[in-house]
Write a structure and sequence with these properties.
9 helices, 14 strands
Length: 286
């Protein structure tokens, strides 16, 4: 009877006879994940399938809180888990960890996923990267009889922009000064002041490409495209709006730093304190 239950759990037909609970908590490199048992055994002969169908809970390592422990990259495991849910993988644009994710797929014995992530070698021995099945369907290219490349339509019907691969790499730094007042009773809500100005530093051509008409060029209108400038600022005061534009242009944040100072509104130490900070965010497009 026990053997039949084990075989039924291993095949993924049901978890009623499995020694594992339906909901399983994992600690992967310090990151906590909660998933179903059937998700972990979705791919036969994978490492997780062997762990959670061939072994008992007592045989697996646990952390101090009783969660099953895996000493792997906790950040990349989210993509492993996404793949196990429906055997499909969709990565964000300009994903820089494809080689490391392929290594994780190899470790977990997910051969189909590792194959999708491996670089393709074309007939002329040049290497191109194939992100995933869904990405290649969205951005696949074909050639016409004349040899001209054609861009296939994605599932949503949108055409992949031919300029996507010709964008220049580089860095853009976004900075702002902000201040807020804390009253004498620190339990009360802080009074935030509006961000006065968001500055943009980087190559002129990149700044104009990303921010377009929202970039105020009045202080430095004639700087050549390949020169660097720190004299631009935005016409709006919402950091989220700037971040959205950078994300749409393929940039991702790689660093952030902030400094702060405190001063009193008067010589009376019992009066409100004003905190002033300056923060910079560095974005990169590879």
């Amino acid at each position: 009877m026990a053997l039949a239950d084990t075989e039924r759990a291993a095949s993924g037909c049901g978890d009623s006879g499995s020694p594992f609970s339906e909901i399983i908590e994992l600690n992967v490199g310090g990151q906590v994940y909660v998933t179903r048992h059937k998700t972990l055994i979705a791919v036969p002969d994978s490492l997780l399938w062997n762990m959670f169908s061939k072994k008992s809970p007592k045989e697996l390592a646990r952390d101090s809180k009783g969660r099953f422990f895996l000493d792997r990259d906790g950040f990349l495991f989210r993509y492993i888990l996404d793949y196990l849910r429906d055997l499909n993988l969709v990565l964000p644009d300009y994903f820089p960890e494809k080689s490391r994710l392929q290594r994780e797929a190899d470790f977990f014995l997910l051969r189909d996923l590792a194959k999708r992530l491996s670089p393709r070698v074309s007939k002329d021995n040049s290497i191109s990267e194939e992100i995933s099945q869904s990405d290649t369907e969205d951005g696949a290219q074909c050639c016409s009889s004349s040899g001209e490349p054609l861009h296939a339509l994605s599932a949503s019907g949108a055409m992949r922009s031919p300029s996507l691969d010709s964008r220049k790499s580089g860095y853009i730094t976004v900075g702002y000064r902000g201040s807020y007042t804390i009253g004498r009773d620190i339990q009360t809500d802080a009074k935030f002041r509006r961000v006065a100005r968001i500055t943009v530093c980087g190559k002129t051509s990149l700044a104009k490409e990303v921010f377009g008409e929202t970039l105020n060029e009045s202080r430095d209108p004639d700087r050549p495209p390949e020169r660097y400038t720190s004299r631009y600022y935005l016409k709006y005061n919402f950091l989220e709006q700037a971040f959205d534009k950078l994300t749409e242009a393929g940039f991702h944040m790689v660093a952030c730093s902030s400094t702060g100072t405190c001063a009193y509104t008067s010589n009376d130490p019992n009066e409100d304190k004003i905190w002033t900070s300056y923060t910079e965010y560095v974005f990169c497009r590879e």
